[in-house]
Amino acid sequence: MHLLDWAMMCAYFGLMVLIGWWSHKRVGDVKDFFTAGGKMPWWLTGISHHMSGYSAVLFVAYAGVAYTDGITVYFWGFASIGVGVAIGSWLFAARWNRLRSKLGVASPLEYLAKRYNVPTQQVLAWSGSLLKIFDIAAKWFAVATLLNVFAGVDYNLGILITGVVTLFYCTVGGLWADALTELGQFVIQAIAAIVMIVVVLGKLGGVSALWTMWDRLPAAHVNPTTSKYTTIFLLVYVLVKTFEYNGGMWNLAQRYMAAPDTHAARRGARLSSALYLVWPLVLMFPMFAAPLLIPGVKNPNNSYAIMTTTFLPPGLVGLVLAGIFSHTMAMVSSDANAISAVITRDMIPVMFRRARQWTDRQGLKAARITTVTFVVLTMIVATQAQNLGGVLQIVVNWVAALMGPISIPLLLGMLPWFRRCGARAAIASWAGGLIAYGLVYYVFDVSQTALIATPVLVSLALYVGLGLIAPERRDTTDVIIDTIGRDDEVAPAGIRKDSGVPA
């Protein structure tokens, strides 16, 4: 890369550090660190939710699918999220917000100990945290791949650079730093995306290429589904993404919790949904055009990086790379904050009695130490990502397939229709989904659709079925579900608003 490109990258990293340092002043206790004190405006909630939902995997693995298969990747990769988040704006956004405002919950898993029991909370916390280590490792590796193609930077050095910068601002500033950097990253990304579209349209003959390009691509590239990415695969992805992007990915639940009230949480969810339906098309247009501009690429995962370094002048390459970095840093920082919340609020107090009497200052220190430890661990695993099957294998085959068993008890446990489902149903749902995944992944030779669908459908069937056959309805469960489902701002009798503990 040119000196101007490196200058652009350094300016971007410097801006992220400054925002993190400024946000440090707004963090006074653990609740500020994890939920921004419930003061995040709806528009920032929506942008933060959107930016936290995808990473540089878009510019590597998904760009590779766009190069070989066309627009199908938009439909199952992003339109499915837009539909899922729209569903969540109706079902889940307000309930997550009331968990904070009415029950004093600061971690997405904190309410599970009362909704089910402590063992259920712990198995979901440990398994979800372990899965996130590999998920974030894949994101680090995707960024390192781009740095390697753009500038020849060693993979491990690329992981180290992005990890250290992200670690600084998310550890110092908590959720406020995450959200504010995500806003800045969204602006930078928008400028970079527009630059890429202008350059690509110029190479294709002008603005008319927006509607004439498609006839020049292979016919299969304009089909929403393919023989590999079928209609059933798309529908399964809508189901999986509905769970994943409304709280199954714990960091996204935090965005709903951080809004000042339920109205703001819903508006933020709707904004994020609209962005998922529209904005990926802007980002991916150059990827869809890549077969016309750089035919014969040996590794399709490198297609977007090759276009950038081939067609953009010095300075703009660095801008586009900064825009790509923004995705991964947004997702990883928000994931780290959520995992830290779960470990600090839900896991450590169960293991160590002294942690239950931590002061606000001690809890905040523990949260920051946990964040550092978690991010460093993901960076170590990222150095082995290629040995684990590569980016797409981890993101699609591992994370998407395993998200259902982890998120179904968490999300459905908030809804009144499932109040008969207790700890037995939750544990069986989680265990059955994981066993089903192990069978279809390691024992049976199944399609990718079956690999993704089997764990979530088995988990869903077990959770609902056991709730009907062997109900475990409790008064505590009724209080929690009724509290977070009620629109008024007053907690009902029998529950203390500040603690979330039944009186």
TrEMBL record:
It is a multi-pass membrane protein. CDD domains: SLC5sbd_u1 (cd11477). The chain crosses the membrane at residues 6-22, 42-67, 73-93, 130-151, 157-177, 186-211, 231-253, 274-294, 306-325, 366-385, 391-413, 425-444, 450-470. InterPro entries: Na/Glc_symporter_sf, Na/solute_symporter, Sodium:Solute_Symporter_SSF. It is found in: Cell membrane. Keywords: Cell membrane, Ion transport, Membrane, Sodium, Sodium transport, Transmembrane, Transmembrane helix, Transport. It comes from the Bacteria. Gene3D superfamilies: Sodium/glucose cotransporter. Belongs to the sodium:solute symporter (SSF) (TC 2.A.21) family. PANTHER family: LD47995P-RELATED, SODIUM-COUPLED MONOCARBOXYLATE TRANSPORTER. This is Sodium:solute symporter family protein. It comes from Amycolatopsis samaneae. The lineage of its organism: Bacteria, Bacillati, Actinomycetota, Actinomycetes, Pseudonocardiales.
